[in-house]
User: Fold this.
Amino acid sequence: MHVTASGDDKVAVVGPRERQIDAGPGPNAIRLTPDGRHAYVANTGAGTVRVLDIRTDDVLKTIQVGVDALALAMPNTPDVMRAARAGSERHDPDPTGSHL
Assistant:
């Protein structure tokens, strides 16, 4: 299970391998890819979405979406993630170059 810890700017991983991953300023939403390999984290404090590799805890990409990144959704298209922010929306293809 992955949970945003906004006050610590982390994603907390709860389970057999408990740990915290640097998520960027003000993480408030997280969405795992269907295969569980990547996590997208909306950072309200930075206006970004960070793409994390769940196996290595590495930040793969930081996507600028503007102020108040509030929520994330993955539509039926497997290589697109949508980030909602106050007043608009942005989508970005898979940062790894392969289908998620």
Notes: DSSP finds no helices and ten strands in the chain. Residues 2-93 form one domain.
